[in-house]
Design a protein that fits this description.
single chain, about 400 residues, alpha+beta, 8-stranded mixed beta sheet, about 35% helix, about 25% strand
Length: about 400
């Protein structure tokens, strides 16, 4: 069977791209390939459900623009299709004078990104959230929560309803490009298309390699471990509660997230992962670990953030250390309140010199687009990312 466009990857970015292509070219024959038995089985289905407003991103950057557009598009999609959505607002809480100074910078960045934050004193913070303690805070009202797996399921239904085809449980083992054709080879069959989009997330570098390209990056998995607050503590806070991040570090710190299901998540941390799709208690893959250790960029980024990395490992194995991170701003939480919750894995693209790739990264051939890095807020920004990819695809021959 010959297709106009083949999309590899059934996460939210792949699905949003598929829909954007159908909207732009309704007559094109599209195929979605996914190695898992259903959509959103990895990053799209293992997150806290936050709809980001665009607090942290460099003003004027592609990430900042797509986040703002994506937040509005996500709300509109949820309203149109009856997906649960709640605007909670986000509180960025400073607990020390140094954090307060950093919060001033974030407050200014919010404004430059088109947001309207509100500065709160420690007393005003306590009035809004009695369980939260800080010297000051910034309230970003635009942040919210939703159900991303449900969004993915509805996107898939929309794609199929418009004539798209999907093959789940179909792992791509090779990609070849010859003249006007590009072929996705699988274990027992092959699919021929005119154009190809790859949204492989945790496997992005491997799909680039399967295509015969030399990736300028590698995916390093970071395991995000969560706890949850249930029962009486499920209403402990009503906003998203975030610490003020250290700008020298790549992750945001342990935070509190009310979920759309009525619980509160604590986390995530950011622990070095030794298995790209390792969500269970024991997570180790010989192949993933060998590739990691053989990559120079892994050693460089690990050395650069050695102290924080060791701290994350300590807190992962020592629950009291994890608890201390959240008690800095929410002292009401006790050790016995932290109940187990499934982990997530963040796919972090890293260059050989150890630099983390912070923005979206796309590799191209004459007939393909590989989305190599789609970091947070990719779920929030998925709909405009899909439109952006379809615009890039329009520049390629059909």
């Amino acid at each position: 069977m010959r297709y106009d466009v083949i999309i590899i990857g059934g996460g939210i970015v792949g699905l949003a791209s598929a829909i954007a292509i159908q909207q732009r070219w309704p007559r094109r024959k599209c195929l979605l390939l996914e190695k898992e038995p259903g959509p959103a089985r990895h990053q799209s289905g293992h997150n806290s459900g936050v709809v980001h407003a665009g607090v942290y991103y460099q003003p004027g950057s592609l990430k900042a623009r797509l986040c703002r557009e994506g937040a509005a598009a996500t709300r509109a999609f949820c309203q149109e299709h009856g997906v649960r959505y709640r605007t909670t607002g986000k509180l960025l809480v400073a607990t020390t004078p140094l954090e307060e100074h950093r919060l001033c910078d974030l407050f200014d960045r919010c404004r430059r990104n088109g947001l309207e934050p509100e500065w709160l004193s420690g007393g005003a913070l306590r009035e809004r959230e009695p369980a939260v303690t800080g010297v000051s805070a910034a309230l970003v009202r635009e942040s919210g929560i939703t159900d991303y797996p449900e969004i993915c399921r509805l996107m898939l239904q929309q794609f199929l309803g418009r004539g798209g085809e999907a093959c789940f449980g179909t792992k791509v083992t090779d990609i070849s490009e010859h003249g006007a054709n590009i072929i996705a080879h699988c274990a027992d069959r092959s699919f021929t298309g005119r154009q190809l989009i790859v949204c492989a997330g945790l496997m992005a570098d491997r799909l680039v390699t399967l295509h015969g390209l030399q990736p300028r990056f590698r995916i390093i998995p970071y395991r995000g471990e969560y706890y949850r607050l249930a029962g009486p503590l499920s209403t402990l806070v009503h906003h998203l509660i975030y610490p003020v991040p250290d700008p020298a570090l790549p992750f945001l710190g342990v935070h509190l997230t009310p979920t759309i299901d009525g619980e509160i998540l604590v986390g995530p941390n950011a622990v070095q992962g030794w298995k790209r799709e390792g969500y269970g208690t024991f997570n180790f893959s010989p192949r993933d670990t060998w590739e990691l250790l053989a990559f120079k960029g892994f050693w460089k980024v690990s050395a650069r953030h050695l102290c924080q990395g060791l701290r994350e490992i300590r807190n992962s194995v020592w629950k009291q250390g994890y608890l201390a991170e959240v008690r800095k701003y929410c002292p009401a939480i006790q050790l016995e309140d932290l109940q187990t919750h499934p982990a997530g894995i963040r796919a972090q693209a890293v260059r050989a010199d150890g630099r983390l790739i912070d923005d979206f990264l796309i590799e191209e051939t004459p007939r393909s687009l590989h989305v190599c890095n789609a970091p947070s807020p990719a779920a929030t920004a998925a709909i405009p990312i899909g439109r952006f990819i379809s615009e890039r695809l329009a520049l390629k021959p059909l």
